[in-house]
Write a structure and sequence with these properties.
Radius of gyration: 17 Å
Strand content: under 5%
Number of domains: 1
Structural class: mainly alpha
Oligomer: single chain
Number of strands: 2
Number of helices: 5
């Protein structure tokens, strides 16, 4: 695993937690949020969509990636677009600042 992988997982982890917190709003369960999660989960399990595998970070526990992908897409297209732009930005930074620390010295 690379530092980039850790950064991407941190971004996704934060997004998942913020999404999960929306289930409980103002002392009660948000029926709208539960509904959007159910629809999203049906879609991703039906299609076998695993965002973690798609971005090159497959999870070792079967179906966890699909379930978490459903939780994320329940937030909608704008949210996913912004999240994927953040991930792409992190990958672009890696391309600008490669992690290869091999240096050559001349005497």
């Amino acid at each position: 695993m690379t530092i980039l992988s850790l950064i991407v997982l941190a971004m996704i982890g934060e997004a998942i937690w913020e999404t999960a917190k929306m289930i409980w709003q103002n002392g009660k369960i948000s029926v709208d949020r539960i509904g959007s999660i159910i629809v999203a989960e049906v879609l991703v399990f039906g299609a076998g969509m695993d965002m973690f595998a798609m971005i090159g970070l497959p999870l070792h526990i079967p179906y966890i990636g699909i379930a978490l992908t459903g939780l994320l897409i329940s937030r909608g297209a704008n949210f996913m677009h912004d999240l994927l732009k953040r991930i792409q930005g992190a990958k672009e930074i890696k391309d600008v600042f490669p992690t290869d620390t091999t240096t050559t010295t001349t005497k």
